[in-house]
Amino acid sequence: METKIVVFKNRGIRRVLHNNEWWFSVADIIEALTDSTDPRQYIKKMRQRDSELNSYWGTICTPLRVKTIDGKMRKINCANTEGVFRIIQSIPSPKAEPFKRWLAKVG
User: Fold this and answer.
1) Burial level of 21, CB count in 10 A (0-12/13-18/19+)?
2) In 29-103, which ranges are E strands?
3) pTM here?
C-alpha cells in the first residue's frame, strides 16, 4: 500500500488506498482538529466520553500499514470517509466543519 499525504490547514494527514477507497490516519486527524500533542490519549478519552463511538470503534477503524515519520511501515488506525465523519462528531472543534468540507473534496 502506498501512503500519500494530504494537507489540511498546514497539517499533513496520511492516507492510504485500501480496497479502492481512501483511508485516513485517525491520529493525524485528531492532531489537525485538536492541536493535541498526544493524539493517542485524546482518542482514549474521546472513546470514554462517547460510548457509542467506543462500541463501534473496531468497525469504524481498521489498522492499516502506513508509512510513519521515520519511514517505516507500521499498522495504525485508519478510517474511511464515513468513519472519519463519525469520529468528527465526537470532537468539539471549530475546525470540524471546515474539515468536513475539505474531506469531501479529498476523500
Assistant:
1) exposed
2) 61-67, 73-80
3) 0.89
Provide the residue ranges of all domains of the chain, joining segments of one domain with +: 3-106
d(CA 14, CA 27): 9
How far apart CA 102 and CA 1 sit, in angstroms, is 23
| Secondary structure of residue 5 in the 3-state scheme | strand
- The C-alpha cell at 107 is 476523500
Across 58-80, b (16+ Cβ under 10 Å) vs e yields eebbbebebbeeeeeeeebbbbb
pLDDT band, residue 1 (cuts 50/70/90): low
* All residues at 6 or more sequence positions from 6 whose CB lies less than 8 Å from its CB, including other chains: 12, 13, 15, 106
Dihedral angle at the C-alpha atoms of 102, 5, 43, 82, nearest 10 degrees?
A: 50
**Mean confidence (pLDDT) of the chain:** 92
